[in-house]
Fold:
Amino acid sequence: MELNVNEVRELVAALSQSDVAELTLKSSTFELTLRKQGVVTAATVPTVVVSSETVAPAPAKPVDVAAPVAEAAAPATPPVAPPGKHSDLLTISSPMVGTFYRSPAPDEPPFVNVGDRVSTGQTVCIIEAMKLMNELEAEVSGEIVEILVNNSEPVEFGQALMLVRPN
Structure:
């Protein structure tokens, strides 16, 4: 049994819309456990673990199953401004769980740096998920004000990656 990214997203969406607090799928090649955030069970930490024979098992950061997955697959709407002192800024968020990369390859320059101007549709980073490199494009034109994630760092669905001051 294999799951692709879209099937995992559907599982997360189904879990978030149900009364089920935890879901575990096991096969001979992997084990996937999804827990709703805020659900506490004795001696456990909410995690998503995916392992297979070709990939060494490694725990990932928790998935926020309360966030609607449909938004990630739907046509992009302008990102929401973060609360507080940066109310004039918009957030570029991760559409999936994966690993954040600032450049297309280790020996190449980053897609964007703080102070760079970006246009709608311009690639700003890569999120690697299940050995697939997914280019993330800017949903708004503007100036990159802050990059909130370090290169090669794991990211969660919906996690803020960059702050943009729109044009």
Summary: The helical segments are 5-16, 70-73. The mean pLDDT is 75.
